[in-house]
Amino acid sequence: MKKIITVKGMSCRHCVMAVTRALENIEGITDVSVDLQKGEASFTETASVDGTVIKREIENAGYEVE
To answer: How far apart are CA 12 and CA 28, in angstroms?
Structure first.
């Protein structure tokens, strides 16, 4: 299932890479794409992933999920 989330606090390519890495490290998430201008991250869930896990990983990388 394709999902899109809003990520706050990104300002550069480094931020995009940090959020991409955080999402790619979650088991069950593939095809990660982060759009800096829109402030969004999209990905495919190949298995059900708890939203709190996604939020925690992005917050651990230094960003906010809206």
So the answer is: 26
pLDDT score recorded for residue 5: 98
DSSP codes of every residue in 18-45: HHHHHHHTSTTEEEEEEETTTTEEEEEE
Map residue 60 onto helix, strand or coil.
helix
- CB-CB contact of 8 with 39 (8 Å): yes
SS3 state at 63: coil
CA dist., res. 66 & res. 63, Å (int): 10
Give the global pTM: 0.94
Task: Tell me how far apart the alpha carbons of residues 30 and 8 are, in angstroms, rounded to a whole number.
Answer: 21
d(CA 41, CA 49): 15
